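Support request, please re-run this one:
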Amino acid sequence: MRPLLLTALALLSCAAGAACTRGSEPTVTPDPAVKPTSAESAVTAPTPAPTVAPEAGPVLVTSLEGHVGETVRMDVTKAKSISQHMMSMVPGKDSFYFTPIGSTVDFVGYVTATPTCSATMRLTGKVIQVSGPGKGPSPGVDHAERQLDVTAVECR
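Re-run finished. Output below.
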């Protein structure tokens, strides 16, 4: 029922002998069978909670290729077998070998402390490129690898 109609009903019930005191309005219980109009629904509908934008942060990647210089996140496990990689030095950090979830390719990361996670972990860090002369089947040809300078480790 519309608010004006409810007020009119309340006044009629006071005139018909309902208990009314000066300065107060009687309580009128709306009929549940009567559906509110769309205008009333808009006025009485609860205000939806404001939407919150997703937290901005490093992009979640499955490969380091194409991300040199960017800070990224990657879900990984400790590498089960270590392939031969080019090595670099990141001051105050040790090398750590990891394999992205769903991949068979392992990468090198540089961490301040070797992760103790028993299963999966999420690494956050800056992708760096290590390059130098290749060896093996193509000696003298420059070779480059993407590696991760890890800033955070989260066990999952």
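The longest helix spans residues 3-15. The CA atoms of residues 11 and 25 lie 8 Å apart.
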